[in-house]
Amino acid sequence: MYEEPPWVFPRRVQGFVPPKVLQFMWQAAEGKIVVMECLRRRGADVEGEGVCVLCGLERETVQHLLLTCVFVSGIRNRIMRRESISWCVPGSVKEMLQQWNALCVGTAKELWEVIPYAVGWTVWLARNGAIFRAEEVSLEMAWDLHITRIYWWIQAANIDCDYSLHDFQQSF
Ligand SMILES: [Zn+2]
User: Fold this and answer.
1) What is the reported pLDDT for 105?
2) How far, in Å, from the CA of 3 to the mean position of ligand 1?
3) Distance, CA 123 to ligand 1 centroid (Å)?
């Protein structure tokens, strides 16, 4: 029987992105994060029929939350416009991560490769904040946060970056 080769994160991504975020994205790629739809299927009594808290429009599945929700696609479309890329987002998180690196045109490769991890983690934290702490996160806040995260990760990895956070956000 054919077995898919094991899937690994690109080496550079492993050096940059915090382990907890890598673990989250791996689970997301394997469809193993516990979203509302999983709870609902297990018979849990989930609030609002398991509808995504970020858009309130569709049931929260892994694909919805990280690929098709208006929240995540709002961030992604803005990135695509900035880079002048047109891309039809694939149907799974794994394919999205596998295709992502090849899309790089303008941004430095090191930065480009970590974008989906920063976006995914930002969306996940926004979702958790909304569910567990009734926090409201706007698309604009999430946009700034995903760039801020990349900045923190660069700092933590001791990579030379002479920009202040503000300048980094402006010029990213
Ligand atoms: Zn949604």
Assistant:
1) 87
2) 33
3) 10
Q: Is residue 1 part of a domain?
A: no
Alpha-carbon separation of residue 66 from 92, 155, 159, 171 (angstroms): 9, 26, 28, 25
Q: How far is the CA of 157 from the centre of ligand 1 (A)?
A: 32
* Residue 41, domain member (yes or no): yes
Q: Report the separation in Å between the CA atom of 113 and the middle of ligand 1, taken as the mean of its atom positions.
A: 24
Domains contained in the chain, number = 1
Report CA(160)–ligand 1 centroid distance (Å).
37
pLDDT, tens digit (0-9, with 9 covering 90-100), for 129-169: 999 999 998 999 999 999 999 999 988 887 777 788 888 88
Residue 166 belongs to some domain of the structure:
no
Residues 132 and 97: their CA atoms lie apart, in Å, by: 28
Q: Which domain holds residue 74?
A: 18-158
Which tokens is 166 given? 């503000």
Name every residue whose Cβ is closer than 8 Å to that of residue 55 and which is 6 or more positions away in sequence: 69, 70, 71
17 C-alpha to ligand 1 centroid (Å): 25
Q: Quick check: is 124 in a domain?
A: yes
Q: How far is the CA of 9 from the centre of ligand 1 (A)?
A: 26
- What's this model's pTM, rounded to 2 decimal places? 0.90
